[in-house]
Amino acid sequence: MKEPIYHRVMLKMSGEVMAGGERFGISPEIVGYIAQEIREVHELGVQVAIVVGGGNIFRGLAASSKGMDRASADYMGMLATVINGLALQNGLERLGMETRVQTAIQMQQVAEPFIRRRAIRHLEKGRVVIFVGGTGNPYFTTDTAAALRAIEVGAEVILKATKVDGVYSADPFQVPQAIKFEELSYIEVLNRRLGVMDSTAISLCMDNSFPIVVFNLMEKGSLKRLVMGEKVGTLVRGG
User: Fold this and answer.
1) CA–CA distance, 96 with 94 (Å, rounded to integer)
2) Residues 51-103: pLDDT tens digits?
3) Other CB atoms closer than 10 Å to residue 156's CB: what's the count?
4) SS3 of 157, please?
5) Are 179 and 205 in contact, with CB atoms under 8 Å apart?
6) What is the 3 state secondary structure string of 39-81?
7) Contact in structure between 131 and 48 (CB atoms under 8 Å)
8) Rounded to whole angstroms, how far apart are CA atoms 181 and 150?
9) Per-residue b/e over 190-226, b at no fewer than 16 CB within 10 Å?
């Protein structure tokens, strides 16, 4: 039987994915679907770490652009990621999976504090670890948190889950003739401002030669095919 090409992955999900077709909130159906996709990968023996955003509940950058203090807005956004993380934990545990939520902002009643060695041990024991609270600092996005945590726990790749099947030269929903890229270098992503992840996250991955795959999580089975080595989405590496 064919083996997965990755053994420990970081799945980065935006909060918007969890809202489904709605602009805000959490869709129980979508959470259930995502949990099932993760379980299929986990059953292959792949260790899964997750960073989830909070844009379906609150967007700190958008609020700060309308006059709210940036640091306060970012902390509110971090708290939104905790809500999403707990929702995802519930979805995974309903399928019988062991999970742990680790937060960069301490709240002992609902989640463990982030401790690198403990997180690695959880992964080694086959638990899915969900990192919430971003980096714990304002002015950093959950993209940067995903890059940071992925490197810290020794993941092999960041799987950036989106609603499109890769990186395009323009928004494919608005520009039908937009070109899909099969592979890009970090420098190309930065120079073209392609919006794969924010520039801090891309730079962190580039400095550590850490690959990123952008793919459509809503395409059933895409996550499993990706970890099994099929060409899915857009690979960002090198250069």
Assistant:
1) 5
2) 999 989 987 667 777 778 999 999 999 999 999 999 999 999 999 999 999 99
3) 16
4) strand
5) no
6) HHHHCCCCEEEEEECCCCCCCHHHHHHCCCCHHHHHHHHHHHH
7) no
8) 24
9) eeeebebbbbbbbebbbeeebebbbbbbbeeebbbbb
Domain 8-236 has CATH 3.40.640.10: no
Which residue from 142, 194, 138, 140 is spatially nearest to 166, judged by alpha carbons? 194
Count other Cβ atoms within 10 Å, centred on residue 77: 26
Q: Nearest 5°: phi and psi at 234?
A: -120, 130
Comparing CA positions, the residue from 137, 150, 230 lying closest to residue 197 is 150
d(CA 168, CA 6): 25
Report angle CA 162, 168, 174 to the nearest 5 degrees: 85
pTM of the predicted model, to two decimals? Answer: 0.94
* Torsion sign (Cα): 54, 60, 66, 68: positive
Q: Which of 180, 160, 177, 176 is nearest to 168 (CA)?
A: 180
